[in-house]
Design goal:
TIM Barrel; alpha/beta; about 375 residues; 3 domains; 6-stranded mixed beta sheet
Length: about 375
């Protein structure tokens, strides 16, 4: 999205939020449950909406869950889409088809969270951030979203630089729903336990969920697991055993270890990945307006924290590190937190929610994005031959 009224882009949306007396959360999964815990005493949450028939008719967090067609469109009812960027693509089209208008009748989780707390309490509250200590990985996935197949070498950050970024981030941001330490394969980074411990000890009271991820093929040393167990970390364990069956025993050993150390974990078995297809996509002939629309239609909602800056699209940032991102990223696609002052709170939140000077990234010219039109679904973790 392109800045048109910097510092006031969400004035109208907040007015629409204030007019609502009842809210429903569209998505009774991980994000929906996190959001509910944050807002259950702030707003009137009447229940959940979910397209999964097995959830409909059940109580979720003590609230009823139903299908979208059971909800009536009215001025005082709002719907908050509490799903990941991939999962929300079709539900958003579903909402529009049913007569709901974005920013008026329905809102995205990251926008509602930040806009509500910014306008009501003058607090900078982010939904999430992606923080990569390293892109190093022991797998060789054909469609890696770090774009490692394009990189000449792994990108590994210095320990002191990571601490500086964390400290700077929390000097600007009051609270965050999900602080995500990603990769690469985080369990290969030699300071991973120290990093998690540092974040938890210094800023854990300002993080709703501190999480990292693993591909399920690496079993950390006991010393690492002991530190992780004391940090309150949650670990997403990706289950890629269909693609890498030779790691079956490692996967089982990892689960046993996590349970032995009482570390909270979730097994994520994705049916498919989405292919952003940078090597087969060329949107360089599109106009600025078309590229801006492409970026807006892409439901990509993550940003990366690196070297004192927020990067407006984490995948564009990963592509740049891998050498395929394009130019001008630091100038037009990043927000320098070292220049932040409290008077710029609305500007910072707007940037985190997708507003930039240009309205798109250079990588948008090579990326199909998380759009309704991108149906390039692929097998997760398919390995490239050495």
């Amino acid at each position: 999205m392109k800045w048109k009224n910097r510092g006031h882009e969400y004035d109208e949306m907040y007015c629409n939020i204030e007019q609502k007396n009842i809210f429903y959360l569209f998505g009774a999964g991980d994000y929906g449950k996190q959001f509910y815990q944050i807002f259950k005493d702030e707003i009137n949450i009447a229940g959940y909406i979910d397209n999964n028939s097995e959830k409909q008719g059940r109580l979720m967090e003590g609230k009823p869950c139903c299908a979208l067609n059971k909800i009536n469109v009215s001025r005082d009812v709002g719907i908050i889409v509490t799903m990941s960027q991939i999962a929300r693509v079709m539900p958003i089209e579903q909402l529009k088809t049913a007569g709901y208008k974005y920013g008026e009748n329905f809102f995205l989780i990251e926008e509602f969270l930040s806009v509500y707390y910014l306008y009501k309490y003058s607090k900078v509250y982010f939904s999430s951030i992606s923080f990569l200590p390293s892109t190093a990985c022991n797998l060789n996935c054909r469609n890696c979203l770090n774009f490692n197949p394009f990189a000449k070498q792994f990108y590994v950050r210095e320990w002191n630089d990571l601490k500086k970024d964390v400290d700077l981030f929390f000097s600007c941001v009051d609270r965050i729903m999900l602080f995500h330490v990603s990769g690469g394969e985080p369990m290969l980074y030699k300071h991973i336990a120290d990093l998690i411990e540092y974040i938890s000890k210094n800023y854990g009271d300002r993080i709703d969920t501190l999480r990292t991820v693993t591909n399920g093929t690496v079993v950390p040393e006991d010393e690492v697991l002991e530190k992780l167990s004391q940090s309150g970390i949650e670990i997403t364990v990706d289950d890629y055993r269909e693609s890498v069956p030779y790691f079956d025993e490692k996967f089982d050993e990892l689960i046993r270890k996590l349970e032995a150390y009482h570390i909270k974990y979730y097994i994520n078995k994705a049916d498919s990945w989405i292919d952003l297809a940078p090597e087969r996509t060329d949107y360089s002939g599109l106009s600025d307006e078309q590229l801006e629309r492409h970026r807006t239609d892409c439901n990509q909602s993550w940003q990366e924290l690196r070297n004192g800056k927020l990067y407006s699209c984490n995948y564009a940032a990963y592509a740049t590190v891998a050498g395929i991102g394009g130019g001008k990223q630091d100038v037009e696609e990043a927000y320098d937190l070292r220049e932040y002052t409290p008077e710029k709170a609305k500007e910072l939140v707007e940037f985190r929610l997708g507003y930039t000077t240009k309205g798109y990234t250079e990588f948008c010219k090579k990326c199909r994005g998380f759009t309704a039109e991108n149906r390039l679904y692929i097998k997760p973790a398919e390995q490239m031959k050495s």
